[in-house]
Description:
Elements: H1 12-24, H2 29-49, H3 54-62, H4 68-75, H5 80-89, H6 99-111
Helix pairs in contact: 3-4
Amino acid sequence: MATVNFTGAVDRDLLKRAKVIxxxxxxxxxxxxNAELRHLVETFEAAEAGGNQNFRVLLDFSLGRLADDEVxxxxxxxxxxxxxxxxxxxxxxxxxxAEADTRSMVDSxxxxxx
Length: 114
């Protein structure tokens, strides 16, 4: 398998924490990154090949592109517990707030009196 170097940016604190995990696991940050990226890509490709769009919906939720109610409607589930179980089974990180929700919260904070 041929490898290629690439440049990316990562939060300094996140990289520091990843180095600690890598050291505890007797591996490298590069190996951790490759394993997680490989899992993400292979799972996504397998879902697409099978015509299953659920992984794409869960990924969008994980990235904060969809709100939980939108995802639950799209997947035909009615409990947040089921949604979080699906996230865990897909090995996706727990979701961030949707961009619109985050923007709204920031705007609300800026509107508070100093």
